[in-house]
Specification:
single chain; about 150 residues; mainly alpha; 9 helices; about 80% helix; elongated; membrane; ABA4-like family protein; ABA4-like
Length: about 150
């Protein structure tokens, strides 16, 4: 059962990723990406996996120690719970990236591969997106400067 739940956590997130990557202009895609509720099914999987290892999970997060964490993920429920948590977090990051890219007018041809990179390795995908976002003028300083120029021009 744990193996099934482990795989299910990805498959519950996959439809959201698919519409963001392959149907970015489809009207419902932006509404889907804007909803934090997309992670609820994945978090229910997390809850199912986490409850049986709650004491071990609490020990691993309340007093972080590599040996305690290793013991947690050595169990199938512990590894599955951590995996579901990663899937949920990556999905929220991907949704934010999608919405930011749409707001800034970043091409879906740029974002598609970047979203795939984020699915696979979000610690690489997110910083790459932040660079793309900065180049596209999406940093707070760029927006403020752009607004000030617009206000001061005749």
């Amino acid at each position: 059962m744990t193996g099934f739940l482990f795989e299910l956590s990805f498959w519950l997130a996959a439809p959201v990723w698919l519409v963001m990557i392959f149907a970015p202009s489809w009207p419902p895609t932006s509404r889907i990406a804007a909803s934090p509720l997309t992670v609820v099914p994945v978090l229910l999987v997390w809850l199912t996996l986490a409850v049986p290892v709650a004491p071990e999970l609490w020990a691993a997060v309340s007093s972080p120690d590599v040996d305690v964490f290793r013991d947690l993920v050595a169990t199938s429920n512990g590894a599955g719970a951590v995996w579901a948590q990663v899937i949920a977090w990556d999905l929220l990051i991907g949704q934010w990236m999608f919405l930011e890219a749409r707001r800034l007018g970043i091409s879906p041809l740029v974002m598609g591969p970047l979203m795939v990179l984020t699915i696979l390795l979000s610690p690489i995908g997110l910083p790459v997106f932040l660079v793309v976002r900065a180049v596209a003028g999406g940093t707070p300083g760029h927006r403020t400067a752009r607004r000030q120029k617009a206000v001061t021009l005749p």
